Amino acid sequence: MLLLGWSACSIVLATEPKRVVILHSFGPDVKPWSDYAQAIRAELNRQSRWPLETHEHSLVTARFSDENPEIPFVSYLDALFAKRQPDLIISIGAPAAAFVQRHRQRLFPKAPMLFTVVDQRRVQYSVLTDNDAVVAVAINYRAAFENILQVLPDTNHVAVVVGNSPIEKYWKEEIGREVHPLANRVSLTWYDGLSFEDILKHAATLPPRSAIFWELMVVDAAGVSHDEDKALARLYAVANAPIFTYTDAFFGREVVGGPHVPVLESGKKTAEVAVRILNGEKAGDIKTPPVGMGTPKFDWREIRRWNISESRLPAGSEIHFRSLTAWEQYRWQVLLVSAAILLQAGLIFWLLYEHRQRHRAEVMARNTMYELAQMNRLATAGELSASIAHEVNQPLSAMVANANAALNWLAASNIENARNSLKQIVSSGQRAGAIVINIRSMFSRTVQDRKPFDINETLKTVVSVVQIDLERNQIALEMQLDDVPAVAGNQVQLQQVILNLITNAIESMRAVIQPRVLRIRSALKQPDLLHVSIEDTGTGIDPSIASTVFKPLVTTKAGGMGMGLSICQSIITSHSGRIWVEPGSKRGSIFQFEIPVNASQAGGKAA
User: Fold this and answer.
1) Are 567 and 602 in contact (CB under 8 A)?
2) What letter does residue 247 receive in the DSSP assignment?
3) Looking at the predicted structure, is the pLDDT value of residue 588 above 70?
């Protein structure tokens, strides 16, 4: 039962709210103390393990030197906390600390006290009790002024903004004492004897190489009270020199920067000490070193405005509010886009290069194909020279015989028969000339236009060229030539195709027994499509290579180059036609091609 009762009491005590009184020097909304108070409340609520009952009061009399107005305020606090003393009293600022120490015995004789946001010079350590703790700050005015001279080394004049209240007069004396060693480098102008309106006018016309140091502006020389936050904003709007201060609460809008008393660190330490006191630890036993000036920090916007080189800033300084460049903000995006553009550009250049190389290769291939075609024609001409000689010899022999007959008829004075013989001589000469012209054009390198010609006559001419080979190899010739219209194309090239196909057919039948038959047919398959087939009874083509015989370097001959049929396909394709091979009815092969009757419309000119 005792254990249960003790546990229940502990739970009740643990859940009972802790009463904390926060006493402001100048009001809960007056900078910079309001920022400190906000940081303290936030940290206290975060660190406290008890419910907190917070009371905040403002010592409005801190702006006056007369202590008589404090009497009603003291009576008010006495009545407010007469029945229950606070668990902790936190005074913010030196005026609040001095007020508590003056009226401690009457108001809070037993309540623990925590003095904070007060410079260590303002703490009356001689009157502190065992129930008092201090979280002081240490303001280093010399460091603040040396910071001005470091970032702006040409500065020779500093205007000090300070009011005319008792606390401000105190700080004027402290500033003058601490920065006295710098008197040979900089002169000071004090604003404590001016109204704030006159201060604004003076700050707008400061001489070159000047700076402004903001200390306090609680009450000006005209007796007007000011909200420091608004007063600083008005000064910033008209000042023609950069503004510096040691107060962290003003950083981020009007001041350049430098070493500051950190608000968050002071609030955190204050909350830590407060929690220790609320937890039962004796306040007088808690010793905390003063919160000194923090790491120098600067406003990048003010640095740019006053052309301050970043190299002049103290080592380790922090730069806030920097406007990042596009490169700093989007570095990875820029790198990725640049890489994509470079990759795309490289791909485009590579494609252009490949296109150019392909075009060059196509030109070289066409030239090579043309040269091979010419070589093929010349090689064929060598093989057919005997046939050409035989073919030409016939009209020549006829011409000789007719000439002798004409001489005999003339000797016999038979003029009419002699005339007939001479006509036959002329006809035979014309025939021989036509044969020579056709054979010469077949092996010519010149470019010819496509024009209409008789395909049947072309077939007959080629047959006449190979007639001797047909007789020598005992090959029977069967020609079935239908009445077809003239074909518009390159006659020499089509002669080459027909000659190659007939020559191949003759060669394929040399190794076979009788019968050896060469069948040549021409027909009109459609109103505008000519069909020519050349069938042999030779060895035929292996079905495994039947689909590739028209590709370059594919041959069925032991010593063949594999270009003849490829050239034939190229010529037929240039005439908008097609060429293919099929097995013969019994043996051998049937090579056939089709071309439009008006092939010139599809192909233009051919080489």
Assistant:
1) no
2) B
3) yes
